[in-house]
Amino acid sequence: MITSEATPFAQTGGLGEVLSALPAELAALGLQVDVLMPKYRGIVPEKYGIKETNLSIELTLNAKRVSAKIWQLQERPDLRYLFLECDDYYDREYLYGSPEKDYEDNAERFVFLSRAAIEMSIFSNTRYDVFHSHDWQAALTPVYLRTLYAGVSRLEESSSVMTIHNLGYQGIFWHLDMPLVGVGWEFFTPKHMEFHGRLNFLKSGIVFADAVNTVSPGYRNEILTPEFGFGLEGVLQEKHERLSGILNGVDYKIWNPATDSFIAANYHPEDLAGKAMCKADLQKVAGLRVRPGIPVITVVSRLSNQKGVDMLLGAIPSLMKQDLHLVLLGTGEARYQAAFKEIASRYPGKIGIFLKYDYALAHKIFAGGDMILVPSRYEPCGVNQLYALKYGSVPIVRATGGLQDTVEEFDPQREAGTGFKFITPEPSELESTLVKALKVFREDPASWHRLMLRGMNKDYSWNRSAAEYARLYESAIRDRHDSLTRA
Known about the structure:
Layout: H1 14-28, E1 33-38, H2 45-48, E2 51-61, E3 64-76, E4 79-85, H3 87-90, H4 106-123, E5 130-134, H5 141-146, E6 159-164, E7 172-173, H6 178-181, E8 194-195, E9 198-200, H7 201-208, E10 211-214, H8 217-222, H9 233-238, E11 243-245, H10 273-285, E12 296-300, H11 309-319, E13 325-329, H12 334-346, E14 351-354, H13 359-368, E15 371-374, H14 384-390, E16 394-398, H15 401-406, E17 420-422, H16 427-443, H17 445-456, H18 462-486
Parallel strand pairs: 1-4, 5-6, 6-10, 10-11, 12-13, 12-15, 13-14, 15-16, 16-17
Antiparallel strand pairs: 2-3, 3-4, 7-9, 8-9
């Protein structure tokens, strides 16, 4: 696996959590897994117990010689994390750029990562059945397998899998980076790597990979359309027979109210007493008056247009007329941070706003909230709704991507459903759906209790998803073998 993030070493979003849980589940199924990622500044050997190896690689990128050492952490006999140490590229304060702008050499930084995966396999004499690339930062590995390294015998049978975690981020650079990439200009065509006159890393990976997948069945279907395809819907439609959707999972060793050490009291479906204690604790932490009967609405989100926070901002003035508490944790675009800061001052005693990333506080919010809002304009998978279900916090989501796949609409007649959904991305729709949920919370507590329990008893653990990935690998290996046989 080639990735730019893996928890706990480096994370900006859900990608890191996937690369923490999925490799371990695959190893538990009997696969031998190596995960290669950059050794960023924050990955201190003493902190994580990583060891230096005697393996190093050296590459020429656009006439410049670049070398790197490999560090490793042997998690278990069949799972290693490998870290690419190249301080010129990775010894920086941030992973991809400052809050103001991306690093200008990101193309070079991740060309190096993608090629290093193949070079490492050659120098270490390791034959991988599959090279699995995650997102645009690793998307050139499938390209290299079939171009620069096409004549290397031990790589001929290796297959490639490309996972799209978020199609909104594609790694688009100017066309004059082609010499840096190192493949011939004959591949700078709409059929291969070119995208409206520019170089597109993610498109390149999709075109050259033996198999492509994304992180939920719903998102798989959405990205085939102009609305969600970000200009790549045509490329994906051509690949549709080898395009699948595998739902992300949850690591219940970490996200489980029965064992969570970050929350005020543990609880489980058979004994929910601790949930009330967690709610009181959250109200205190958020500077709100402890009131057991008031609904606590929560948001844990990156503050961006994709996450629909503009809808939430539009709905808040009307919602504040209701007797409720709102707690938000998130960081992101400056305009949204300023807006929420102003709202917090406008409604003291009703809103608790935390404009930061705080892992421990996130656990408290999932445990202490009665409901969580996830109003995303698009959502490849989403994990917050999955965490919330486990913690008995009822999700209110926009019906898109993985949110549509994982939250079932509440139906009191059938005694079914795990949450509430709305379709149109408008503040009024968000508000009316939340009002519907509040009505059930206030007027039918027994029905609400059963709704919580249905969510808590859902199983979105990684073992099911890992088995699907294993089948995807087998299919990619088979397809590669068949193509060699035909050749």
